Amino acid sequence: MRNILIFIKENLAVGLLLFALFLGAGNIIFPPLLGQQAGEHITLAMIGFLITGVGLPLLAIVAVAKAGGDLQLLASRVHPIFGIIFTSIVYLAIGPFFAVPRTGSVSYEIGIAPFLSEAANEHWAPLFITSVVFFALILYLSFNPSKLVDRVGKILTPVLLVVILVLAVKSFMTPMGEPGVAVGNYTNAPFYEGFVQGYLTMDVLGALVFGIVILQALRGMGMHDKKKQVKTTIFAGIVAALGLAFVYISLGYIGNTSIDAIGTSDNGGVIIAKSAQYLFGSFGSIILSLTILLACISTAVGLLTANAQFFNKLFPRISYKTFLVVFTLLSVAITNVGLSTIISTSLPVLLIIYPLAIVLMLLSLVDHFFKGGRIVYICALIPTFFVSLYDGLKEMKITFSAYEQILNALPLYEQSLGWLVPAFIGAVIGLIIHKTK
Questions:
Q1: Is the sign of the CA dihedral 408, 414, 416, 421 positive or negative?
Q2: What span, in angstroms and rounded, lies between the C-alpha atoms of 431 and 366?
Q3: Using one digit for the tens of pLDDT, what is the confidence trace for 380-404?
Q4: What letters, b where the CB count within 10 A reaches 16 and e where it falls short, cover 221-240?
Q5: What whole-number distance in Å separates Cα of residue 135 and Cα of residue 132?
Q6: What's the half-sphere exposure (Cβ side, CA atoms, 13 Å) at 294?
Q7: Do residues 126 and 108 make contact, with C-beta atoms less than 8 angstroms apart?
Q8: In this structure, how many other beta carbons lie within 10 angstroms of the beta carbon of residue 61?
Q9: Which of 7, 12, 102, 111 could pair covalently with 292 via S-S, beta carbons 3.0-4.6 A apart?
Q10: If you ran DSSP here, which 8-state letter would residue 410 be given?
């Protein structure tokens, strides 16, 4: 028992670091929206959301830890070229192209804009100035990734947890109202809709990337034994999963009971902002601003650090700091196109790569059963790609009626989970081929 307590004490900061890396803009704004729209079906919807927002990321952390924290090595089990291309796409998607600019934009929309006049919000300058200051801080924190445990895990995360805890406790003690009526897909398929909404957090993609950040931090702490690194990373994943589950359930409850007090909205940021204002008055806006800023800072640091480390490894002639500066400047530029544009542009890409990431991660966990047979990965990922690719194209309003009629025959296709059965059948076929050979 004493050894267990010592292990927890020594590695809790690493778990808090991982939790802080996960908890970003999407993790704050999507659960309240789910809670409000799911209505009386909040329990089923939240279970589905927790599977993709907590359960699968935890499995991804385990998969990456077993692979030595290297997503490229994991993806190379399919093919080395696939490993480079897929890993690069994942890093850029949750890095300077989409997720990192989203942290900057959400920080402004919820953390800064509510305190400005209407005229100021309509001008380009406040967003630009905010993004420059925000990413200057991110750049400073990212220059020394080995110090992330001290700067993020031990400082920012406890403050962040206290802020969210205050909001959660207040909402439970003085509920804003009763749950509303379920709308949209939550009416007939709340579990599946919650499952798909969990995609928007990008937590599985983040889990595949954060492994290298954690390992870098552990090495900076003097931990070089690989078995101990894997053990500590898995423990950190459990801590992060528990923290995320608490945050998601709390924010989902706030959204679920908010309709009577603040009305309905299709923007989770607006829901949580108005709820904080209702629960705490003007002080609530300050609490919310701190929550958003701390969450976005920690996530942006982790994502930019991981991106710079990966591409520095891929192109060693270009230094880590050069990549960091370039990605930071790119993030500043994309942040200024606005939150709505960032989300609408990222969704098609997310619909394409998320199922591939899930299948790759799940197969890697049972890799030992088929001795890493490449054909199993290939046969599972090819049908997954053809279904998810069309989901992405359809989101961009590009459709092919004949092909869509075929996909409509797939189970769960209407719930955006049509890739599940083809992936499973493909894996079985690949396993048969592997055993035959």
A1: negative
A2: 12
A3: 999 999 999 998 898 888 888 888 8
A4: bebeeeeebbebbebbbebb
A5: 5
A6: 23
A7: yes
A8: 29
A9: 111
A10: S
